[in-house]
Amino acid sequence: MKIMFVHQNMPGQYRELVQWLADTGEHQIYFLTQRQKPPHFKGVETRIYQSHHKPAKDAYGLSRNWEESAGNGLGAARAAKMIEKTEGFRPDIVVGHIGWGELTFFKEVWKDVPIIGFFEYYYSDSGGPVGFDPEEPVSENTPFLLHARNAVPLANIETVDIGLSPTFWQRDRFPQSFHDKLYVCHDGIRTDQLKPNPDVQLKLGRLDRALTRDDEIVTYVTRNLERTRGFHVFMRALPKLLRERPDARVLVLGGNDTSYGGKSKHPGGLRAEMEAEVGKDIDWSRVHFLGKLPYDDYQKVIQISRCHLYLTMPFVLSWSLLEAMSMEATIVASDVAPVREAITHGETGLLFDFFDPQALADQVIDVLATPAKYAHLGPAAREHVVKTYDFMTKCLPEHIAQMNDLLPQDKRITLPLNRS
User: Which candidate, 31, 21, 9, 185, places its Cα nearest to that of 100?
Assistant: First the structure.
């Protein structure tokens, strides 16, 4: 079968699905992306497209996002048409993310080719990160600017034949009128690869020995150190945590950019802002900012953790939470709706009030002091992820079934009989 994937930052949410399809050796796969140096997948032809148009710096705020998305959409559509003209590739199905407008005009290229679109987020000034934290005030224009961003999903719900959202919370952000066209299924976690490792060791440059599971290690992982992912709350919990647990070490993973929400007004970014606020009360010799690590090293950080922190405002659930659960981490997470979809307090993790850094510190201190009391959480978390989010046994079959429903009998994808 011929499949075209579309995502401006290849592979995005399709990392596991694309690799599995390519590994079967039964399909011709093209991946259309804006990423200038995309990762290489054996058996996948990657093609880079250019946006047809970028809005001017002084573009009208309410239409700016649509203008940029329309430029992406036309650029992607023209690239797809050129691929067919010059390479003879006409897909049997198109699978892609709708968020940047890339799929908007694909039905104008191939009217009869089915499309599955990834619907990640619908913007509103309530129920999500906007307006959640009083430290990030909204302006009177915020509701209008947010709703204007929804022009893209509103257009694309008519473009796609079917859509998907990875969690029920994300699906429910969209209007009820979308729901009949959306199925809910996560991208999938490779629980067969992401396992606990009692013998894990981690060497840090400033220490003269490797860390092991016997050490009191607290971990905090995010793509970037930002308010949406609770970095400010995390930092405010550190003074008490480090004071009460003199042998604890804190490992922090994440870059200094801003992926979501507003940027810090501090010239050094949010990290520098928080260091200025609480730095005098922190023992920096026991706090290790590791930046962004290779995937194997990231796994070791989670595997060595005695207490793993997942902080977030109500927003898209991070892969890192489910991956940490798969590796049997004891997790303390913010008590918000998308997290409650994955974690049950006291059963698969521990939840705390996002706005209470002292409660966070107290909970982590107790986990470090009495690990046996919480020893059941990690195995239960892994069991839940295996049952609910495992790529091979849960998510892959659902995604393939949804694709097959749009394909003729002779084009359908076959799953192996043994999917364990």
Answer: 9
